[in-house]
Each structure stands twice: as C-alpha cells, then as structure tokens.
From TrEMBL:
Predominant subcellular localization, coarse grouping: membrane
Residues in the signal sequence: none
Species: Cannabis sativa (Hemp)
PANTHER family in alphabetical order: MOLYBDATE-ANION TRANSPORTER, SAM (S-ADENOSYL METHIONINE) TRANSPORTER
Topological category with respect to the lipid bilayer: Multi-pass membrane protein
Keywords: Cell membrane, Membrane, Transmembrane, Transmembrane helix, Transport
Protein name: Uncharacterized protein
InterPro entries per UniProt: MOT2/MFSD5
Localization of this protein: Cell membrane
Keyword Transmembrane: yes
Length: 131
C-alpha cells in the first residue's frame, strides 16, 4: 500500500515538471504574477478540458454517427499528426519514454528478487527516486 502511495507521489512529480519550469522561468524573467495565473487558467481550460471534450465528441461522431468503426478516431489522429512532423516525433518520444517507465515499474521488483528472498522494497524505491 505504501508503495502505491509513493508511486502516485512520484508520478505526480513527474508530470508537474513542466509547471515547475514555467513558474521558475516566469519569476526569473520578472513577469507579472497575474500573467502566470492567466496562463494556467487558459492552459487548463483550453489546453486540457476543451480539447478533451472536443476529441471525445469527434471520436464519437466518427465511430457512431459516420459508422467508420472503432479505429476511426486513431485514423483521424494520424491525419493531425501528419500535418506537423514535430508533433508525431514528440508523441513517439513520449510514448517510448512512458512505455519504458511503466515496463520498469512493473518489472523492477521481480528482477531484484533472487531465489524468492525478502528485500527492502521501500528502501530500493526511495533510492530510485533519489537518482
């Protein structure tokens, strides 16, 4: 249970690095604090919420209304990725990074247990986080 809690905390830290960088750069350049609030509110509403809602509605339209099948949203996404090669490369990099991270998360424990001996999982996990 403690491992799950610590894993959740580590994942939160992993996905908050962009926000930390943004705040540090904002303060370093001496911009007004109000701009940071505006940037975050726009990023959350326009960047996350609105895009997710529109993507869900578009996917539903492609699958149900146009009867293009369950793979149609992925085909539509490939059209958007073809517009800009950098987006496709960024998606590939993120997929490969997260895939390797999740593979590591699931396999690090069995890989370290020799002959079913008991090892200090919490200590090893904390050491991984420190590195």
């Amino acid at each position: 249970m403690v491992g799950r809690v610590l894993g959740g905390i580590a994942t939160s830290l992993l996905f908050s690095s962009f926000e930390s960088w943004l705040v540090a750069e904002h303060n370093k350049r001496g911009f007004e604090q109000q701009w940071l609030s505006i940037t975050f509110s726009k990023a959350i509403f326009l960047g996350n919420d609105l895009v997710a809602i529109v993507a869900g509605l578009l996917g539903n339209l492609l699958v149900d209304s146009l009867s293009l099948g369950p793979v149609a949203p992925f085909d539509a996404a490939s059209c958007f990725l073809a517009i800009d090669e950098k987006m496709a490369l960024l998606g590939a990099i993120q997929s490969l990074f997260e895939g390797s991270m999740y593979t590591f998360v699931f396999l690090w424990t069995p890989a370290l247990i020799p002959n079913d001996k008991d090892i200090p999982h919490g200590f090893i996990f904390a050491t991984f986080i420190l590195d």
